[in-house]
Amino acid sequence: MSAISIRTLQAMKDKGQKFSVLTAYDATFAQLAADAGVESLLVGDSLGNVIQGQTSTVPVTLEEMVYHTAAVARGNARAERPALIMTDLPFMTYGDVATGVESARAVMQAGAHMVKVEGDDWLVPLVENLARQGVPVCAHLGLTPQAVNKMGGYRVQGRDEDKADAMVKHSVALAEAGADIILLECVPSPLAKRITEAVKVPVVGIGAGSDTDAQVLVCYDMLGLNTQHVPKFVKNYMTEGRSVAEALKAYADEVRDGVFPGPEHGFEA
């Protein structure tokens, strides 16, 4: 089978088919996840939390993202159907267009197929520039972990009407600027539904309800390896005697079938 591409994911949205995204930080998990049917692998700066033991994603460097992207790319290449790899540009590596373009070059040359950036419509010039140069972009809105210090903690975003309306406008602006995917983290389920209907590109949710086009989880969370706080939107798939490979497949299947997430994994306005 041919590798998953942004055209594959867009076609799935257009047909009303859901797809799964899962973090991966090394070659082994990348191959296991892709072979389990996960359509996209996110080399997330969440590696700062789950691998490095940091209290946030802020300390993660661009060099570390390049290293982990290359490892994931090697494992993904061994899969029967390679997934699309998206990589986070880490904290303070895309504050202006020139810096963002150089950061994107580094992770794309390491093996990423798409870059992910956190923010709202201030990212439009960067997204436009990357799109012109052939770099697919995922724009991450809602709870943006790199801004945890400004937000004052990990909190649900967009609960009041003005902020919800602004998030819809920002999502539309980013999609029109050339973003290929919108990712929403910890936003009320009704708001995520509005945004999914407002943009033509796929919308990936995490703690954003069941009406988005796709779901993403941190692999350590869905495998029950989280030793700290377990977020409300997480489901442990390492139950019922499953192996790791079976757990990964169960996650991908439940996302595609609309079983996960359930109402208990979302947030109200």
From TrEMBL:
**Record organism:** Thalassolituus maritimus
Residue positions annotated to bind Mg(2+) are 45, 88, 118
Keyword Cytoplasm in the entry? The reply is yes
CDD domains, sorted: KPHMT-like (cd06557)
Sites binding 3-methyl-2-oxobutanoate sit at 45-46, 88, 116
Print the keywords alphabetically. Cytoplasm, Magnesium, Metal-binding, Pantothenate biosynthesis, Transferase
Lineage in the entry? Bacteria, Pseudomonadati, Pseudomonadota, Gammaproteobacteria, Oceanospirillales
Gene designation per UniProt: panB_1
Q: What is this protein called?
A: 3-methyl-2-oxobutanoate hydroxymethyltransferase
Oligomer and partners: Homodecamer; pentamer of dimers.
Listed under catalytic activity are: (6R)-5,10-methylene-5,6,7,8-tetrahydrofolate + 3-methyl-2-oxobutanoate + H2O = 2-dehydropantoate + (6S)-5,6,7,8-tetrahydrofolate
| Superkingdom as given in the UniProt entry | Bacteria
